[in-house]
Amino acid sequence: ETGVTQTPRHLVMGMTNKKSLKCEQHLGHNAMYWYKQSAKKPLELMFVYNFKEQTENNSVPSRFSPECPNSSHLFLHLHTLQPEDSALYLCASSQGIGGFYGNTIYFGEGSWLTVV
Amino acid sequence: KNEVEQSPQNLTAQEGEFITINCSYSVGISALHWLQQHPGGGIVSLFMLSSGKKKHGRLIATINIQEKHSSLHITASHPRDSAVYICAVGDQGGSEKLVFGKGTKLTVNP
Question: Which of B91, B100, B103 is nearest residue A99 as measured by Cβ atoms?
Fold first, then answer.
């Protein structure tokens, strides 16, 4: 139990569906992140939020839409995805940002997404 | 952009063996992280270090800043250590963008 909870753990969706991934952290952290992990590829940063404000969008297609209503919750809204978007989506949090220097990263268990 | 290389990609060991996983990077960093990812997908942060050596239980992480190299050691390995171990580095500019290695898959057989 890392203090970062992701739901759902598994999601299968069609290319025309709209779904959302949810992340909640109980650690009092200020920064939250979405990462994507595709098969046999390194983790890729998607979005960074610091105090609810988006500070990083790593050239992510608009079919992925993040939302951060408060420092404890982070959503990833999914719309008209492609099969190549099938991957493990990981949420993470840390006390501060800035290269994570001095800040340990806490990851959630991940949400396995399959787009059919 | 920093490039992170891990070796080996796959490692199989017998229970009790001493394990070493290596990580090298190409440009200066602010900190280096070792992460453990279990088959279910969840990732746990093991160490964050910017110099020297850290120890936690049977795990030891070392870093050589001059050589741009870090090692993760596991003493008296156990089947529950089976996981993917990932090295990640943060750049000196303070960006949130960690650069990740591809991971080392460790299997410890009983």
Answer: B91
Contact by Cβ (8 Å): B50, B63: yes
Classify burial at A62, counting beta carbons within 10 Å of its beta carbon; exposed 0-12, middle 13-18, buried 19 or more. exposed
Predicted confidence (pLDDT) per residue in A48-98, tens digit = 898 888 888 888 999 999 999 998 999 999 999 999 999 999 999 988 764
Q: DSSP strand E in chain B: where?
A: 4-7, 10-14, 19-25, 29-37, 43-49, 52-56, 59-64, 69-74, 83-91, 99-100, 104-109
Q: Do B96 and A48 touch (CB under 8 A)?
A: yes
Q: What are phi and psi of B100, to 5 degrees?
A: -105, 145
Residues A43, B86: C-beta atoms closer than 8 Å: yes
Residue A99 pLDDT level (bands cut at 50, 70, 90): very low
Inter-chain residue contact B96 with A97, CB threshold 8 Å: yes
What is the pLDDT confidence band of residue B40, given thresholds at 50, 70 and 90? confident
Which DSSP category does A109 fall into? Answer: -
* Distance separating alpha carbons of residues B39 and B36, to the nearest angstrom: 10
CA of A80 vs chain B CAs: smallest distance (Å): 24
In contact, B108 and B21? CB cutoff 8 Å: no
Hey, are the CB atoms on B45 and A106 less than 8 Å from each other?
yes
Q: Best mutation site among B96, B98, B99 for testing chain A: the one with the most A CBs within 10 Å?
A: B96
Task: Kindly list the residues from chain A whose CB atom is less than 8 angstroms away from the CB atom of residue B93.
Answer: 99
